[in-house]
């Protein structure tokens, strides 16, 4: 496990940062792709401190040319690509809006980053994952299973990502590539913003959580994603692991 090369998009903070920490602790080479340079470089340094090799590359997940350049740089520098984590999401994700009031521009932003972005990342990384018999992991949400009031577009996008992942698992399986999802519930700045915009959300979420707490991105969610990226999960594909403390009644 000490020589894996992985790419994590949207890893300049939150869950992506936690995943980067967990992969760094395994001694892996971790490429942080995000738009925020200062924060991304800080995460890369934290990966180094954890025992891995951290690299930051500035990238807009919705820009196909940028993603192609990043993947080419990774393969040129590190020699291969063993794992990919799709974590980038629209900055509008935590914004509560009733369905009837969702502006078309907000819908388009969700699609561009999370769906078109998934398509872009999959196309760019497929040949390299085929060469390494690697793993592709998408971060989805319990919202994609059960829906969320005032987060209808986010819920729809997350459900769509899971559908794409299950299809890719079937298409890419003969090439030795595994494709899975993780649906986390973790304390992040985005979740804090969501709670601030919808004060009743915290009580709704924690009120049904058997463990009674939000997950930690690095110690609760990160190791689960690392497992899916590793050979320990070599016979697991097309699944969604619910890293939510038992919060969601659907799995």
Produce the secondary structure layout.
Elements: E1 5-9, H1 14-25, E2 29-34, H2 37-50, E3 53-58, H3 64-78, E4 83-86, H4 104-132, E5 135-139, H5 143-146, H6 152-172, E6 178-184, H7 189-197, H8 201-206, H9 217-229, E7 240-243
3D structure, described in words:
This protein has about 250 residues and is of the alpha/beta class. The chain has a single domain, classed as NAD(P)-binding Rossmann-like Domain (Rossmann fold, 3-Layer(aba) Sandwich), CATH 3.40.50. About 50% of the residues lie in helices and about 15% in strands. It has 9 helices and 7 strands; from the N terminus they run βαβαβαβαβααβαααβ. It has helices at about 15-25, 35-50, 65-80, 105-130, 145, 150-170, 190-195, 200-205, 215-230; strands at about 5-10, 30-35, 55-60, 85, 135-140, 180-185, 240-245. A 7-stranded parallel β-sheet has the order 3-2-1-4-5-6-7, with helices on both faces. α1 (about 15-25) links the parallel β1 and β2 (about 30-35). α1 packs across α9 (about 215-230). The protein is globular and about 50 Å long. The chain starts with a strand and ends in an 8-residue tail after the last strand. The mean pLDDT is about 90.
Might you state the CATH topology name? Rossmann fold
Name the overall outline: globular
Q: Alpha-carbon distance between the termini?
A: 29 Å
- The overall number of domains is 1
Which features does this protein show?
alpha/beta; seven-stranded parallel sheet; 9 helices; 15% strand; 49% helix; Rossmann fold
């Amino acid at each position: 496990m000490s020589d894996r090369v992985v790419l994590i998009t949207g890893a300049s903070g939150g869950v992506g940062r936690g995943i980067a920490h967990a992969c760094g602790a395994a001694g892996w080479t971790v490429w942080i792709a995000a738009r925020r340079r200062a924060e991304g470089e800080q995460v890369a340094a934290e990966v180094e401190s954890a025992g891995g090799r951290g690299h930051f590359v500035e990238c807009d997940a919705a820009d196909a040319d940028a993603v192609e350049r990043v993947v080419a740089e990774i393969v040129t520098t590190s020699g291969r690509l063993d794992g990919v984590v799709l974590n980038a999401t629209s900055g509008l994700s935590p914004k509560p809006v009733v369905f009837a009031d969702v502006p078309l521009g907000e819908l388009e932003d969700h699609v561009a980053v999370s769906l078109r972005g998934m398509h872009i990342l999959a196309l760019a990384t497929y040949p390299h994952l085929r060469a390494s018999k690697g793993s592709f992991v998408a971060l989805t949400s319990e919202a994609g299973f059960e829906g969320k009031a005032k987060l209808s577009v986010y819920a729809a996008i997350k459900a769509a990502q899971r559908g794409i992942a299950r299809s890719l698992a079937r298409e890419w399986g003969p090439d030795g590539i595994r494709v899975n999802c993780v649906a986390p519930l973790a304390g992040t700045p985005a979740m804090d913003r969501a709670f601030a915009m919808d004060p009743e959300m915290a009580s709704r979420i924690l009120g049904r959580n058997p463990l009674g707490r939000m997950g930690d991105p690095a110690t609760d969610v990160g190791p689960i994603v690392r497992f899916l990226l590793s050979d320990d999960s070599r016979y697991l594909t097309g699944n969604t692991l619910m890293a939510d403390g038992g919060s969601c009644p659907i799995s």
